[in-house]
Amino acid sequence: MTEQIDEIGISKLEIDTPALLIDLPVMESNLKKMSDFFSGKDINLRPHVKIYKATPDLAQMQLKAGAIGMTCAKLSEAEVLADAGIQDILIANQIVGSKKIQRLMNLASRTKIMVAVDNQKNVSALSKTAQDYGVSIQVLVEVNIGHNRCGVAPFEPALKLSEAVIAAPGLKFMGLMGYDGHCTLKVKEIDRERISKEANTLLVKTKKFIEEAGIEVPIVSASGTFTYRFASEIQGITDIQAGTYLLMDTTFKEHGVREFDCALSVLATVISRSSYPSDKDLAIIDVGRKSISPVFGMPEVKHPIGATLFSLSQEHGRMSLENDARSLDIGDKIELWVSNSNGTVNLFNKFYAIRNDVVEAIWKNPLCGRST
Fold it and tell me: How far apart are CA 190 and CA 205, in angstroms?
């Protein structure tokens, strides 16, 4: 949803700070690169929306670029997508607890929804409530392929749970899901392709094992931005859940995802220049840990060259200055690259979409701080 129309057309340097910026040409290039990759392939892209907290404007762009539907991690994300008219949504997570399951059933009454399961107790709870509500829920059995987070064990345990889903009234078995998250930051770049292909081959072997028992497995959903290229080469994978590619961050690029560029930055203002002689090359900005996530390391300064962010407190950042950056004065604006896009987006209630240093659009983040 676009808001604050009076800011459309202003220079990005006029934006009040801290502010979250999207470089539109960079984002559009990322979108096209991923669309081109899947063009002509017998495999689908179902992007994960957690990177931008299900902001509908961005989801609609991905759908127009060829995505078959959307993937999300949270029920609230699926609700926002459905409210925006998006009709094909996978919640790649377990929906547990009576309140959430009731919300899921309300969602199923107005859109096509799939959900992941990995245990019989959850299957029974979903089935009972689906019958009470008179709806049908599509289900993917999540298989643990090495990430050791959610997921039932491959082969026989996956078969047994698939059979339980098929036998459960109100549920429709649609296939399998697996995530090779252990192939992201946790492995060396040189080993990533091998480990990812081993993991996704295990998922496809489980599909074949279940099919040999007489059960059709139409969907096998997997992977993410780190491994989409490798998973796409495994015959039997049908859907890829990559999402971070759209906005990116410096951590992904530093760890091997170099075909996409960083579109996300945080705009800050210099609010103090120390008067102490020993601190003549120090500037204080109005961005701290409440405005940018340092989980994967200190954010880099995009502009100006010669400034280095070396400390973040709650509402302040300390920068050391070299060369031309020493001329920074109170009120000057600086930009920071984002090192953790997911964590940073969660801190802002809107995106400023920038083209040629001008605000072209403002998109509301409907789930800022919400995680249910």
Answer: 25
